[in-house]
Amino acid sequence: MEPQxxxxxxxRRVTGKEISPAPxxxxxxSGLLDSFALTDFVSGLEEEFGxxxxxxxxxxxxxxxxEKVTSYLASKA
Amino acid sequence: xxxxxxxxxxxxxRRVSNDEIARLVGAMPEWILAATGIEERRYAAEEDTxxxxxxxxxxxxxxxxxxAASDVxxxxxxxxxxxxxxxxxxxxxxxxxxxxTTPALDIxxxxxxxxxxxxxxxxxxxxxxxxxxVGAEIMSRRVSLTPEGKNTAILFGDGAGACLVxxxxxxxxxxxxxxxxxxxxxxILTMEKSRLQMDGQAVILQAARKMPRAIGQLLARNGVAxxxxxxxxxxxxxxxxxARVAAALKAPQERFFTNIARYGNTSSASLLIAAxxxxxxxxxxxxxxxxLSAFGAGLNWGAILAVPV
Lengths: 77, 309
Hints:
The complex is a heterodimer.
Chain A: H1 3-15, H2 35-49, H3 66-76
Helix pairs in contact in A: 1-2, 1-3
Chain B: E1 3-10, E2 14-17, H1 18-25, H2 29-36, E3 40-43, H3 50-65, E4 74-78, H4 89-96, E5 104-107, H5 113-128, E6 131-138, H6 150-153, E7 158-166, E8 172-181, E9 189-192, E10 195-198, H7 200-221, E11 231-234, H8 239-249, E12 256-257, H9 260-263, H10 270-281, E13 290-296, E14 300-308
Parallel strand pairs in B: 4-5, 4-6, 11-12, 11-13
Antiparallel strand pairs in B: 1-7, 1-8, 2-3, 6-7, 8-14, 9-10, 13-14
Helix pairs in contact in B: 1-2, 3-4, 7-8
């Protein structure tokens, strides 16, 4: 499965919605994520991708779009 | 051994509703309630100072324990909002209690200072005698009641709390504690030029991860399941954050005592005010351990485990 599809899978699990946001769509401005949901999203990404996301990286800017999340995870690989 | 002996509180009489705040900051009262869980907060009178309100909470705490100030071996005062940085309110409170040789130290750590003080008191109490911990904050003077200051103005209130840590007796024995500091992201929560600067979203993100992790690690190393904890007493920062901590720990939310709806976020006083209200209001013996936890400027955070005796 492609990274974007796996990110989407985590996002759907966290939001509980069958959503398909565009890669560059803001997950915060669209109301899909808020500060509280982002912590679940990050935990889900850690589990799905087998990475550790340090607390210092917990910024809405880094996880605002599927595209940014994809780039961030690629940098952790 | 170190025990939680008593708590105390002092709150201003002036109640400030969400309607009043909403008019000043250009927000809807309903939004304030939904975003924070706060219905009203208290504001200190113009003549009040951090030391003055801290003193009242300290006196209330000593009365509740039936302990004379002269029987206190050390004082810690936590405040991020004191009028003067140095010397801070600790020496003023000690002097007002009639203590002129008792060590009295300030812990200027907004929101987490009273937790740090109790954890330190537990380490010191066997050598210095009873330790009086005070948290006092007048946050209303550190926020901007304008549309620009909306995100912090809606949150904060004024108040003071206190806790007496005793080496010989109390209702719960302090069994363990953990404290952490991460200064690499300290800029998200600062008090500069008399104004609170807070990146609320970043603070929530950090707190929502760090607090449950600290509590979870503390419980695990003591062989206690979160579901078996009798009561969780947390810094009253945001009702949604407390719910998030409960969910992360998979602990029943009703075990988390909250009073943020009535007092708002009183920074480092909030843990002690919540503890006092819970302690005064409980009608039955505690059925399980007690957990205190806070998160604040620094970033500083941690947790304390106490077991009923």
